[in-house]
Amino acid sequence: MTRKRLRILIPFVTLLVLFFGCQLVHEIPGLPRIISFVFPKPSLILKDLWQNWPWLLRHLKVTLFEALCGFGIAVILGVALALSYLFVPTLERVIVPLAIAVRNVPFVAIAPILFILLGYGPLPKIIIVMIVTFFPVMSNLSAGFSSVSLNLQERFYIYRATRWQLFTKLQLPAAVPYFVTGLEIGISNIVIAAIVGELLGTKAGMGFVILQTVSQYRIPLLMATVLVTTLASVAITTLSKWSTCLLFRRWLQQF
Amino acid sequence: MRAVVEIRNLTVAFDELVVLENIDLTITKGEFVILIGPSGCGKSTLLRVIPGVIPGMIEACVKGTVQVTGQHPLDLPAGTLDVVLQEKALLPWRTAFGNVQLGLEILGKRQPKKEPEDILESVGLGGSKDIFPRKLSGGMKQRVALASALATEPQILLMDEPLGALDALTREEMWTLLAKIHQEKPDMTIILVTHHIEEAAVLGDRIIIMVGYPDKGYPSVIAEEVKVNVPRPRISARGAIAPGCLDIANIVRAIIHEKGGRRND
């Protein structure tokens, strides 16, 4: 068996073993009922998932919309801020402390303000996702711009390169791997950030589903929700990794 | 011969640290000049003053006069000089060919006298033009860096310990290559910084010996100049160094020991 096939097969086999292992645990005679209530049979989870799929999908779409919109704005904002203080270095003293402050404000505290101002629709959650994810994009991109060796900068200086040449031919390509890392860190948090935003106040989305299932003690459906959100998050992260690798292959492979 | 670099009474200081003091140096067109001295004595600082990197890019207090091809370094037109550095001198996202083209692109030279392919060929990398730096050996990387600098056809080529990270055999191959380039381009002035004494004797027309320990409060000065009147080629195909060069190397070594022995003062 080739190494590649093994790499694909191992996670599937692990999942199957876990599935049947959990299923078998429930067959142990005398197992306390609380255990079967809190950790329902995997088959029950799958059954609830199947029965409620259209409802879950509708809410998943809302969460994904908020997460991806927030991330898109975060990328634009992060890139814009990093570029602004690359070209106007004095701005760094203003932008970086502000960005750190915004990043560290507990969004649980600002969420009510956002809800009062913007209502319970997707906009407050988009803003929460943006707050959580713009910082790694900005700081990584900025670190990439600064990563250029002094030797190379000296060469560009000796050539009397223009500011634009220095940026396009040196700083920007050098920053690509850092930017991609920033995207990966950022995107791995977007679904969870959107759901936490929804948990604080919403009418739709996976956070709403979680609130509903918990209040009705529908633990198998709650687990199904967790499964769906986890899979969605993994899918987004993997897709993003593939697409960035494809898009920036020329720069990423050569380091 | 016409002087291309004229330095008079140069003193360079970084804040309180005076690195160079009262340096006088004249380099004529087509000369292969070596700057040698102990580590940290300011050879690279002196080299960076010539293209105006100090103080144009790296802030420092520079006193005295520096003229390069009759002009102040900061007024030099682009393309007058080029540089080969010890490491991290290539753009990792560009192929060998792309790196050779870099200077031409920035300078806007669309029709160079010699095509980048031919320049790569001349440094022995004709078949490696599509290879990225990470797949090149240390010696090959330095050949690409050299080809990249040669592509811009500079009047003055500055080299800051370009062979410092190479093994002995590769270093000897590079000596032969540099000697060939010096022979083929008699109008190009080469200024090379090294701490390898034999390298200085094999390559240079003149060796400028610098001594001093700026970090210990002794700014560097030019201790002596040694002319290398040994006919070229100075290294055989099997890597044997001409006896005359070895004699020069011993003289240089003795001067450094004699005049540079202030480290433990």
| Helix content estimate of chain A | over 70%
- Quick check: average pLDDT of chain B? 88
CATH class identity of chain A: Mainly Alpha
What would you give as the CATH superfamily of chain A? MetI-like
Determine the structural class of chain A based on helices, strands and strand pairing: mainly alpha
Which term fits the overall shape of chain A? flat
Biggest beta sheet summary of chain B: 6 strands, mixed
Chains forming the largest contact: A-B, 23 and 31 residues
Cα-to-Cα separation, first versus last residue of chain B:
41 Å
Written overview of the protein:
The complex is a heterodimer of chains A (255) and B (265). Chain A is mainly α and 255 residues long. Chain A has helices at residues 3-25, 33-38, 42-87, 92-104, 107-118, 122-146, 150-158, 163-187, 190-199, 206-215, 219-247, 249-252. Helix content of chain A is 83%, strand content 0%. Chain B has 265 residues and is α/β, with parallel strands linked by helices. Chain B has two domains: 3-80 and 157-259, P-loop containing nucleotide triphosphate hydrolases (Rossmann fold); 94-153, no CATH class. Chain B is 32% helix and 27% strand. Chain B has helices at residues 43-49, 53-56, 96-107, 116-122, 138-151, 168-184, 197-203, 243-259, and strands at 3-14, 17-28, 32-36, 61-68, 81-85, 156-160, 189-194, 206-213, 218-227. In chain B, helix 3 (96-107) packs parallel to helix 5 and helix 4 packs across helix 5. The relative contact order of chain B is 0.17. At the A-B interface, helix 7 and helix 8 of A face strand 5 and helix 3 of B.
